[in-house]
## 1
Amino acid sequence: MRKISIYLESSLETQELHFDSRKTYAQNLFTYGLIRERPLCSGLGLCGQCKIKFVSNSPKPKPKDLQILSPRELELGYRLACIHFPESNQKIEIPSTKGYFNFSKKSQSPAVCLGIDLGTTTIKWALIHADKEVSKGQCLNPQMGAGAEVVSRLAFALESEKNRQLLTTLVQAKVGQIVSKAGENKCPLVLAGNPAMIYLFLGLEVRELSFAPFNLNYWGGCEELLNPDIPKLYIPPLLGAFVGADISAGLTYIEFERDEDGYPYLFCDLGTNGEMVLVKDSRTFLCTSVAMGPALEGVGLRFGSVFGDNDVCSRFFLTPSGLSGWPQKDFRISGSGYLSLIGILLQLGILDRNGHFQEGRHPLARKVQARLQENRLYLTEEVYLSAHDIEEILKVKAAFNLAINYLLEKAGLTFRDIRRIFIAGAFGQHVQGGSLEELGFLPQGMEAKTSFVGNTALKGSVLLCQDERARNWVEGLKDKVRYINLAHGDYLAENFAKHMRFSFVDEDRRIG
Ligand code: FES
């Protein structure tokens, strides 16, 4: 243990804390609750959101510091907290960050229900008022500092009982805060999330969920009463170790609210994890899941952002004078923004199908290309698209293709048989028409059959709050779902690399 002096920029107070020298600064600071409200990439050295300033005895910069931080920041003593370990006689300063808790009530009429989607990265909620107005809110999952995705979150919980309890306390406190801000501690509440988030929220042991054969010993589909700050809440059924209450809520929404009947259809919920369900008929639901990484949520990308605030670009445009669409000098880019930008670069030919920068042939390419320097496309002096960001998006695309092809193969179907694709999550909301085909997520002709349905976990939660028929339907869902593990066998290893291209690979499944 080392004694480290901490200076908090926001409060002007100095504290002396004991840090574990085997853990990084980021891990120590998270345990003390000092860098919780940040969209961290969990020590991958990619996002720069963990930067702290060494006031004394600053360590030698590591290669990732040099990559992410500007020469001026390095000179001032800034380093990435996720790659440095505490040493003797160090004093650090923690820059204050903008809090992420966005909620304002749209109506003063009483609430009839509250739906909460407990995501790995963000928590979103909707309060339905008696006059039918909907007040929406979102905030970061306070567990982010313990890992950007499910696997590292579970690993943190497995390290010690204290860690697991810390994650539970944090997220229950956040849900308590949501209930209190909503001013409604009596209205019906439904909370959806993936199995790991539900387990950690309820304070359940996560060992069986974390190791093969990945069994569930809690199945949801029941009400829970946890503490005086949170009213009794309903957790929709969990469908398997990797398919949770967010998917059962989402499927409920699709089944009850879609405009047209008919099967088969695909339901894809894309976030840090991607869950895909192929609904062959009303009684046959084949599902799988795949790690997509947090890129779609804007985490782990150099200038990525979780929320679509005013200083965040979610869509780029190509104009006669080049690229445009960003709001100001210092801005960040959402996951959708990255998809939009890469789609344009592919159209211009500035990116080849393997995601490498090249000389574009399009008449407008020259203007955009002039901003290319050392494998980075500079949008402003500070903000750029890097080769690493492109690779992260390519991995998302490959994971998406792989999971859908796998389900189709198992069901003995092709894309041609699919009547509709429902894509849930922020993915695609700002992507220009045709971009998903351009990026190779879908075969030609399939984008016209695709509906972007937003946050179905939240919409389904609200439905389950209010509709008895929906509640009955979801409780029978578990018997209809068959989970197919994509990680079993060699399919993943054999096929992943071939989908690492910005084109739809399986020519046999092109729709004419
Ligand atoms: S958490 Fe350190 S760079 Fe992302």
Note: Residues 387-411 form the longest helix (25 residues).
## 2
Amino acid sequence: MHTHKEWQITLDMARERGWTATVGSNHSVTYVECPAKNPQCRVKAFSTGRGAENAARNSRNKIRNCIHAETGLLETATLRMDSAETFLTATSAELTLRSVGRRAEELLEMLDQVDSALDEAASAVERLGEEFTETAEREQQARDARDRAIEAVGGGTPQEWIVQAGSDLRRAEQDIKGVPKKQPSSGAARKRLDSLKNQCAELRKQISTETSNTDR
Ligand SMILES: [Zn+2]
């Protein structure tokens, strides 16, 4: 430390640039030398005396003009790069944390989606299971009805039955044409004939659809 403010600034500047200070034996003078100890770069800082302010300022010019100070500047540069490295490490660590945090949020969201997809799949399994049970019951009923019907017609295939039904209905139509319209229940018979003809046409359509589906 130097008691004079201007000298203090000068000594600080010298130290930053790698200059070394040596206190003289009588303690009233401090010798400051550039890193190369070049005789041209030698500053004497008196602790007292007139003109200290100007002397201190002039010395600063000498320090600035030193062409041997690369070592000091290099040290300063090294310190600044150390500092910069600290900031860069902090920045990188923070950015890494943010990126990892975002990925964690993404994964959480995906887990949520998969979770609700699993829920949906589970309820689909339940729905399909219920429908299968109902369908199996209907299949049993349909099998019973088919067995009874086959017993009534004495065997064959739907293609044969529909042909037989068509032929029966054509004959019935001929018969009904011969019935006087006044005769009771002839209207009901005509209605039934129409209904059966419709049913016959509908079933014929179903058979041909089924056949073309099976062919495919
Ligand atoms: Zn120098």
Note: Residues 34, 36, 38, 41, 66, 68-69 surround zinc ion (CB under 6 Å).
